Every structure is written in C-alpha cells, then in structure tokens.
Amino acid sequence: MKIIQKVLDALKNYRSKTILAQKVETALGKDILLPEDFAALLSSSAESFLEKIAQRAKKETQKHFGNAVSLYTPLYLSNHCDNSCTYCGFSCNNKIKRGKLSENEIKKEFAAISKTGLKEILLLTGESRENSPPEYIARAVSLAKDFFTTIGVEIYPLEIDEYKKLQQAGADFVSVYQETYDVKRYSAVHPKGAKSKFDYRFDSHERALEGGMRGVSFGALLGLGDFRFDAFAAGVHAFFVQQKFPHAEIAFSVPRLRDFSGGEVEKFLEVRERQLFQVLCAYRIFMPYATITISTRERAEFRDRVIGVAANKMSAGVKVGVGGHDGAEKGGKQFEICDERSVSEIHDAIIKRGLQPVYADHIKL
Question: Does residue 259 carry a pLDDT above 80?
C-alpha cells in the first residue's frame, strides 16, 4: 500500500475529541509510541498532562541531542510563484515586488551569511519552474558548497532525477510542507498552480530520498485547518516514510499562520502558544531522534523556552524577502517574522539557557 493511502486511512479514524485521559497516560508509559499513542498526546485531553509531556519530551531531547541547538539561516533566491495560495505573500495574485538573485548576488549573499559563522543554509524559491528552474537551483547549491557544510532546499516538488541532480550538486536535505492534510481544505486554499495537486506534493519526500537526499523535513501550516488533525497527519506521514527509508534523517517544522506583505491571512483556527508547545513535545516523544525546528514566526521568548525541551534547531539572522543579507532585499517578503534577532544575539540567548550553539554537525569527506 502506498504511503499516501496509509496516511489517509489513518486520518479517517482520527477522532481527537473522543480520546480519553487514560489513553494519554498509557502513551506516556510507553518507550516506543505507535500512531495511536501520538494521537493521544496531541488530543485536547492531553492538555491537562502538559507538564508531564514536557518532562518526557525534555528527557528525549537530551538523550538524543544533549545540550546542542543547531543554527542555520534561510536564503530566498527568488519570490516568483505560479501558485495562488490564499495565505502566502508569494501568491501570484499578490502584488509585491518580485525578484531573483543573479549568480553574483548569490555569492555575495553567501559571503555575508558565512561571516556570521553559520555553516548551514536553507535555499528557498517561490514555486515557479520558469523563473527558478532546477538548473538554477542546482547552480546555487554548487556555489553554496564553498561556504557551508550543510545545504537544504525548500522549493517546488521535483522528479527523482531532478532531486538526484541537486544531491549531486551538494544538497543534503529537502523540506516540503503539505500545509494541510485535509484534502477539501487543501483544494480551497490552493485554487491555482501546480501546488493544487495534493498527491504529487505528498509524494515529494519519497522522490527526494529515492534521489539520494540525506534527509527530509515535514510539517503543516498550523491554523490553516484543524491543527491537531494536521499535526497528527504530518507525524504519521513522517512515521511511514521512516519505515520505508530507515536511513533517512527526519525533521519537523511547526509554523503557525502569519500575516504577509499585501494582505492578512484567513484566521481559520487559532493555535495558542500552549497548544503549539504541546505539538512540539508530541513530535519529540513520538519520533525522539527527529530534528525539530522552531520558526522565527514565533516570539523570541517562546523560541528560547522550547529549545532544549522539544526543539533542537532554530534559524537566526532571518530575512524572508529575496536576498537581504548583503544589502537591501531584492524582492518582497513571504510572511512577517516575529524574531528578528541576529545570529550573535541568538547565540547568546542559547548560552543563557545553558545550551550549546552548534554551527556545523556534519562534515563532508
């Protein structure tokens, strides 16, 4: 059975509101959790167990990552996009300044980021093959090897052979976020463009791993749909992919909806910080070895509190327009961030928490 069918079948049986407290206690008593245990930790019943859940999450984080907190920054190469997502500043319907970095500008951005000490970078584009073809992205990845030890990409879905070309150019990770796993809701918020193809996007992680990538990142845009449903779906998706590809490094990101340049997002369902913390901890307990990133969409105070407990990775010195690390941004922003701290400021904040900032955790031989 295909992974997509396994996940959709699991979602048919997902009933968060019917999960009782006893199920939560049972889940917390297990060393290895199954999807039904993960569902219990995400349930509304589990909110009253949040302190116990946090303690278990912290124990798992320390066991697998010690006091290490990995640092990276994203670089947007282009914001041209063919999709009309209703929640994103890059939507083709949104009238923002469009831009794309030239090869020389990419090098300057890499040099500026490298001076901060960062050794991991995430390269992003809007979802437009015409403006950011795979060859353009592969060239950027190749250039990045001169500055960084770890390179991730967050772009439109590719074919296996295209992912292989990026991997051969030097890419390590691929991030693809399904946004929402509610098929009807997905169609409503993705009315136009290649992103409207739910199944094709869903299978991206498998194609990336078949193309030789070291790891893949999962996530849903919390608040776009029922956040418990979407968090459960992303976790189960990653669980089944891990079973198929035991060697793959798995990661999660837990972004919440944010306003964007040119408009405000539809407030479909509010997700409070306490609930977001519950999601983070549930992921850590369910897949304790997975990397969990906390986004700059969140307040600095919240980000600082969750590292070492559930999250073990955070971005720093973030710009969400095109370029911006070496001078002015060349294109408009995808969304508004909350934590605008520099790399050095976040470094100091991590130290104050008694944790260790890590700039490179992988060296290519």
Answer: no
